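Translate structure to sequence.
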């Protein structure tokens, strides 16, 4: 009798465990266990849901017309749509239930300036993408979208082209990179490099070589002050971004091209006040909602087409073979970076190792920090004249075959001037007053750097000097 009693209890426990397992499958995976064809049918149905009916902005925008977007403006935003299989690989992983890692590479716009300072950080465009994905895709396949924001206010593509690996390792599993630096880059490199879109090319070449073969989306905003100054809707598109996107076959979505017709015809100024924040520089929450819609609509459309065309086989191989560079200033190898910039208080994993010797008045200082934001501008700084700092570093032997084209110092607008000297080469002046808009800028103390030990000396001038990063590329 005792044996039969124990057997009955065991049967009850087994039955209860089976019930709990099936219950969890039903309520976390979108239903009872199903085939991949069932998963695809459910995804096709879910992807057709009206975006504003479920998205993160539904308290403010319940219909597309409330965003001032029609199909014509949405189509205008698609400057180039990639034909490569990187995005299909992402969708295949999602269909199998793998999580999707998204990395955001931008400036203060992607950090939600200025409304993030009022505690509205969840209104940034990429949060809406994550929210939509986790409402539409995750309940069906279990695939959760996770976003890491590496954006740093005031920074341009030159920094991330050389230094993204110190924040996001080349061996990482990132599936999608959102680049949002069109407004930052447009005037930053005038007179510094021959072609203003060359830093974007360097960024694309370096990120396309990531082990995970991520999809890259170029997202274009522009600065409101340019429109007020009669320059029009001015971003990197006007300086050659689209040919670079086409050459490397990466998708380019432009809020600028989509919404500019409204702003050009805006005689009363009402549309401008609606789409830009009080600082007249950063796009407002409604503008972020518009960009979010353009981005979600693109992802949804491509996902739907991939399923409908039956092109999401289990294992999709992506081979990245880069074409010859468009610009002669573009470096063919892997850049090296020593950075002092932090993202979310994480120490950079520097790829260039340096030894620093300086006078006591060159100290590690926070140049700019922000409320409710994870980015911080900091560097080695002195406010005094005639202070010296020395960087000693070793360039790898492969530079004998592929010398680094330039050694670059990252500083900040109007943060002082200096004189530099690499080894026994002639001294080179360093100026920080050639970029009108506040932001980081690059000065080049040396070019054509080969292998071996090197020593870079910097002497501050009146007003001091700031060093945020050293880059070899």
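Result:
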């Amino acid at each position: 009798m005792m044996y039969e009693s124990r057997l009955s209890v065991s049967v009850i426990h087994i039955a209860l465990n089976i019930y709990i397992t099936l219950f969890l499958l039903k309520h976390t995976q979108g239903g009872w266990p199903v085939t991949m064809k069932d998963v695809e049918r459910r995804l096709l149905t879910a992807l057709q849901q009206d975006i504003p009916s479920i998205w993160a902005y539904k308290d403010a925008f319940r219909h597309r017309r409330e965003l001032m977007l029609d199909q014509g403006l949405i189509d205008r935003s698609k400057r180039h749509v990639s034909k490569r299989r990187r995005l299909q690989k992402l969708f295949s992983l999602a269909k199998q239930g793998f999580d999707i890692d998204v990395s955001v590479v931008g400036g203060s716009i992607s950090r939600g300036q200025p409304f993030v300072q009022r505690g509205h950080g969840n209104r940034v465009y990429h949060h809406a993408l994550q929210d939509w994905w986790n409402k539409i895709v995750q309940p069906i396949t279990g695939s959760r979208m996770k976003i890491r924001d590496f954006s740093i206010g005031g920074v341009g593509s030159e920094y991330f082209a050389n230094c993204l690996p110190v924040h996001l390792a080349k061996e990482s599993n990132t599936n999608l990179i959102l680049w949002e630096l069109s407004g930052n880059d447009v005037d930053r490199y005038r007179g510094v490099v021959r072609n203003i879109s060359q830093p974007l090319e360097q960024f694309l070449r370096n990120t396309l070589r990531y082990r995970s073969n991520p999809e890259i989306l170029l997202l274009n905003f522009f600065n409101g002050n340019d429109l007020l100054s009669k320059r029009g809707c001015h971003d990197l598109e006007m300086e050659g971004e689209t040919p670079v996107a086409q050459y490397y076959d990466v998708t380019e979505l432009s809020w600028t091209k989509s919404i500019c017709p409204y702003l050009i015809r805006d005689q009363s100024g009402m549309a401008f006040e609606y789409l830009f924040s009080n600082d007249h520089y950063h796009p407002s929450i409604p503008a972020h909602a518009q960009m979010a819609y353009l981005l979600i609509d693109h992802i949804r459309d491509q996902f739907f087409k991939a399923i409908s065309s039956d092109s999401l086989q289990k294992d999709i191989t992506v081979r990245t073979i880069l074409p010859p560079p468009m610009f002669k200033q573009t470096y063919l190898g892997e850049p090296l970076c020593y950075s002092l910039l932090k993202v979310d208080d994480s120490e950079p994993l520097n790829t260039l190792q340096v030894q620093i010797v300086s006078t006591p008045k060159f100290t590690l200082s926070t140049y700019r920090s922000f409320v409710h934001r994870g980015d911080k501008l900091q560097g080695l700084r002195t406010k005094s004249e005639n202070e010296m700092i020395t960087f000693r570093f070793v360039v790898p032997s492969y530079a004998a075959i592929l010398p680094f084209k330039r050694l670059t110092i990252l500083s900040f607008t109007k943060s002082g001037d200096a004189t530099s000297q690499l080894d026994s080469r002639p001294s080179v002046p360093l100026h920080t007053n050639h970029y009108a808009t506040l932001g980081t800028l690059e000065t080049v103390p040396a070019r054509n750097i080969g292998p071996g030990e090197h020593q870079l000396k910097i002497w501050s001038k009146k007003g001091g000097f700031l060093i945020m990063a050293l880059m070899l590329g």
